[in-house]
Amino acid sequence: MDFYLNVYFMLGLLNLQTITVYTSNMGKIVENSACTFLKSKCPGTPGWDDFLILECIQSDSSIILDDSCQHIVWSHTRSLLDNNYIQQITSSVCENDIRNLNCKVDAAAGTYLKCIATNRDDITSFLKECGKAIDDFGCGRLNINSSSQANTIICLQDHFSQIEEDQIHFCRKFPPGSGKVFKCLMQHYDEHLTDKCRNHLLRRQRMISEDYRISRGLMRACKEDIRKAHCRRQTSDDKSIRLAQVLLCLENLIKNGTRIDSECEAEMRDHRKILMEDYRVSPEIVDGCSYDIKRFCNDLEVGGKTLHCLMEHARGKNSKKRIKDTCMRALEQVIKESDAAEDWRVDPVLYESCFHVVKIACKGLTGGDARIMTCLMDNIGEEVMTEECEDALIQIQYFVARDFKLDTQLFKACKEDAKSMCKADSDWENPNKQNPERDPLVLPCLYRNAFHEDTELKLKPKCFEQIKRVMRQRALSVDLNPKIEEDCLEDLAMSCFDKTAKGEELLCLQNNMDKLQQQCKASIINYTESEAEHIELNPYVMKNCKEVMENICKDELDNENGDVMNCLISHKNDVVVKNNNRCRLSIEHFQLISLKDIRFSYKFKIACKPYAIRFCQNEKTKAGVVSCLSEKIVNDTMQGLKSDIQKDCRQQLKAQLFQQRESIDYDPKLAKACENDIRNFCSAVPHGSAQILECLQSTTKQLSEPCQIELFKVKKEEITDNSVDYALITMCADTIEQFCPKYEQEHVLDCLKKHKDETGFNKKCRLVVIHRIIEQNSDYRLNPSLQENCKLDIRKFCGDIISEEKPDKELNGKVIKCLRKSFRQSRLTNKCEKEMVGILRERALDLRLNPLLRAVCKDELDTICKIESDEDDGKAEECLKASFLNRKIPTVACQEEVANLIEESQADINTDPLLQQACALDILKYCSDIPQGSGRHIKCLKVVMTDKSKDLAPECISMFKKRIEMYRNADALVAPESLEQLYTQVIGSPVKHYFFFVILMVIGTIFVIGIFCGRVSRRHMIIKNK
């Protein structure tokens, strides 16, 4: 019986399609109650065909039949050997040959089959039908004694038995002929299959690749869909049709929205997997990549790993380590044919590398429609992502990024927009297309239209979301940005060869933007410009600041136009950001990059571009444009002109200046000018929180001239608009809210100055305010109020000082000193005099506001007047005045400066706050009707003190007497600057009678000489007249 079944098998080997489903008059074997258990032993047998059931029983030794079932099987086997049935199944392919054999149908049962088998060497169609199999397996055999092909058939049987061994071991539950044995063996391909079995499987894969019809499963499941889609007519006129052609045709059907049978989809996935499992199945890879495989991947096992090795070398930055163009095209074709980006299960390397990642990060998602691929891309950089998975994923995405159609979700959402706006083909695959390939150009076109101002040209919402998703995911690597990779290949090799971590290459290119070749620089500028507008394009900020954005910038997350980045920058010094160092560094990196070009700050670009073109044509960087425009505004403000720069630009300019003030690194021009000064005076000071700037301002006189010039510009900007003064605004935030809530931040310093001595005023804020007052007193241009109220006096009395100095150089208190001199002489206008009184009064109460006094009286302050606290409330100046009175000040320069202070207090009592405080009630009582200034209140108190009918307060009398003595000493030391001062000084002198005597002697001498000269001249005239 086994002999006849083996013969039956050989007949089936000739052409499997000739054996029809057999059903005897007794019904099917499995329908008999004694043999129903065979359904569980041979699951999935098509139609429960008796022949396939018999094949299952024969191949599976574990199946044990009882006597009753054995009889049923024996009976059905005998029926299968019926002469009439054998004639029926053989006549379709062997009709002419069998007719010549003269085998009798009406002979005993089984004799007809035996006759055919005995004379099978005379069946010529055997060579025709089995020629390809004989060639593939190398089974051509010769029989010396006859022309019999028995040895050839034995070879074919031998090959089948080699597969059968592994089939029994790994796939015994799948009956032969079910179409599932091949799939089962392929699943165990990487396990311990025999080499012969693997070779047979590979050979079969190649055969299927060459002609899809060899795959019974695909033929059976997709027959109807292939017919409906006209795949055979679309692909080729040849009798054999490549698997890839059919897969592309069916995939095109799916991508265009047509549903196909689920079994067909499953078969397609299995056959797409064949293409990714072994490169040897794809003729284009074997032909186009043989050189590169030997060169780069020769030591790897065959299969999917070789394909991924080639993919890795497709994106090498070193041209010598990249695959050839022919191999690149072959890889592109295989990726498209397998549609590897649509279902991660198709790629065995990706599946193995990412299995555990998917299990955790993509739990609940099913394969297909690129769902898992999207999930994996979104998890790059997360803790769950492994390096192996990321590498395999990027290798696939490298090719997906270069063909719009390979991104399933993107194509589905955007195919209509791509067709209408970018002239893309509406079909996913069109074999008859004659036009040049436009797929690489479609995605850049969609990018351009994603944020188009014209609503009619904007993308549909579903397409817009997919574009944002693609932009976000492909920002992870240069490899996923074809334009940048192509334009910057040489720059990557030259400047960024050591940046191998994911994403480091793009950062490197941005950091070296000035050194890049023109084409690469243009691409990086365009990308960074988009990055500034759309936060999702910045993978580092998205990764490192995710929680921060959700907490403090949630209102801006749905906005574009750089709103999220502006929010992060404004909150950069919040505790939540400071605690996240990676987020803070990501923000600061973008701030530094944005300094390189005005286009890298979206809102600033939109608001200020026209003014940058108009006023700052020579500036190349954003930092230069910011400096240029701010200087324009400051100059206009100081000259009392209305600025040409409109409010929108001024607001953005303020924001940029505020950022610059935070760190010296954000102001390249200032940093370069003060490089040596920072090293000499501020090397230990941190760069953040405007600390370097404050350090430089505190050592202004010691700085180099270039640094002083740039620093003076900064001071002018901060004084003109206090809202850009980073230290003031941040240090005084709570104080401003408490004391100046209704004040505009542009002029908030004036408010803070008024309240700085009040209880509850923040000490750190007070220190900053005092520093600003010192700066204002160092140059009249830094004091808008003084400049406004004293402009006539400055022009009149101090014009020569201004004309002698450079306009961009700080005057270091020279104009203030000039105004003090005129103040002592009571020559200032009322407005200017009041302004000077305020300045001098502040100085008297806080020694820090008088740097000149601190400098010339340093030794006296250290030895005689040891004031421990900086907030001396006028005690330091009072100590110096007392020392001056007691003649304890040895330094001449200090004596002169203290004498000037006393002279100023004599000109206006308000410049002497301690005396004014002691005598406040008496001034109110006796001198309230007398105008302030020109020493009137001092004179009033002198008169009152000499009037016995009026009494001054004891404290006032005591201090005033000391002041009168001080005035005398100061007058003696200070040279008189007018006749009035000379008269006052002489009258107040204890030796005034001596002066009067000398004056009388001089007048008398002149009178005597006049009389004598008059007589002589008169005598001469008389003589002449005679």
From TrEMBL:
GO terms for cellular component: Golgi membrane. The keyword Signal applies. It is a single-pass type I membrane protein. The chain crosses the membrane at residues 994-1016. It comes from the Eukaryota. Cys-rich GLG repeats lie at residues 192-258, 259-318, 384-454, 515-576, 644-704, 760-827, 889-949. This is Cysteine rich repeat.
